[in-house]
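#struct-queue
[09:14] JT: dropping the first one here, sequence first, then the structure tokens:
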Amino acid sequence: MTLVLPPADERTVDGRRTRCRISGDGLPVVLLHGIGRTLDDFTALHTALARDHLVLAVDLPGHGGSAPLDGPHTLPALAAAVAGFLDVAGVTGPAHLVGNSLGGAVAMRLAADAPQRVASLALLNSAGFGREVTVALRLLAVRPLARLLLRPHPGIVRRTERAIFYDPAYVTEERLATALAVARQPHAARVMLELVRDLGTWRGVRPQWRADLLDAVAALGLPTLLVWGERDLVLPAAHLAYARTRLPHARSHLFRDTGHMPQIERTAEVEALLRELWA
């Protein structure tokens, strides 16, 4: 098993190496991945959308091939880093933001902090809509267990990947190799712990940042799409019902027999939903 990240582009943002993938031409679309993940979770959707859009996917600071921040990794810090990346990429006007899991919360934070940058929000199994989260992430708030759980061990990586997908066929050797390469980055565990402890406790996701963020996003009135996989073991599909109450004007869709990453298990359907939103 070759433990290297798939080929991608690179930009320097505020002096930091930033791994990214930029392709296509047209209205800009920004793809934001989840905690401990990489832009490679969007590869198929990226290719599909780049037929008629400028598509920008980026490894968040301290994730994948992107260098960590000098300061703490928090939700506002990640959103600011994405804004800096867009500046470097020459995208200063409104863009369509598509975020999965933590990436959804980052997209919402960016919209709240810099609404002039955002044309629409597409939130795929997004963080921010409920306290419940997989026990594996809650246990990271317990210091003695965190070091054990964050070991870059093939068995741990395989269990994590298996929990993400409903269909085990998506747990490929290529995805396992990428996940293990990510876990072996020297700063990976530190960045993960900073984010987990900023956003939650062993009880689950903290309520205050969620309430404040959703109030801010609801006030913007942006075109919004909410998507969930019914069999999500990371952030349960029950969060979608709450999301609909907080963002009542948003479009929404629940995929049956789908896990935490509908952009992978339901690529064509997600693409169609995005194009309907943007139309």
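[09:21] JT: and here's the second one, same format:
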Amino acid sequence: MICQFQRTIKKPVVIEGVGLHTGKKVKVKLYPAKKNEGINFIRKNTLIPAKIEFAHSFEYSTSLMKSGVVIRTVEHLMAALYFTAIDNIYIEVDEEELPILDGSSKEFVDAIKSAGIQTLNEEKFYAVLENPVYINQGDKYMEGRPSNIIKFTYKADYNNTIIGKRSFTYMPNDKESYKGLFSARTYCFLEEVEYLKNMGLAKGGSLKNAIVFHNNTVLNQEGLRFEDEPVRHKVLDLVGDLYLLGYPIIGEIYSFKGGHRLNAEFVKALLHTDSISIKPASEIKEFVEGATFVKVV
């Protein structure tokens, strides 16, 4: 999906829930923003831009920080903003962590759509990959390739049968991969739960907001939404983290066993290696395969 103009929401909307790691109740208010104002979080009267330079921590989620004020677990909402092509919005949070909701981006997407989409009188900008980019951390790596196709691929490599060596590819012009992505839930293994709690994490975790695996079985009564749901969620996280670049990426992104920290390092590499050019929608429409201008969700 290529939008010609920037977008925001038509009216404020409130989202409430529990933080996955803090376990605290949290209220989030989304407000419309003007053109070129970008995506900004607000907490304790501090405005924190959703940009990689404010990325702070990557332990089982992505956090932002400015002037000592922290916003945790931003990746699912960032993915929802990408999926709905929102460029400009204010996000007011009354606690340090965004709500986990059902563990996916679905409820964030639903809230944004319920608020309505407002097209702004300003062209949308995209980050076009001009040169290949490769980074790694041990056996994990990410690669970006210039292309006229927008594609995000994640390859998992788990030593079990329930996830194993699966991969999933998301292409914005493919409606089926989109529908099967924003509702994919976060997950963990039962043996990880005690470790996470000892680290002060996962205080709000439950079978209502995460898939839990044990001995190659799913503990959630309803089972998986998709056979490859965990890998789909990894792509969701990837999309959300990469949106901290500040622009949607035009190109092919491949991640092997990556996570939040590697995603963030990849965004930094894009900025520091002159691998991207920022171009208005009018310049890339003919370049992107299958691109059509979309004005509404």
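[09:30] RK: nice, looked through the second one.
[09:31] RK: Helices lie at 75-83, 106-115, 175-179, 190-198, 229-242, 260-272, 281-284.
[09:31] JT: good to know. The chain has a mean pLDDT of 92.
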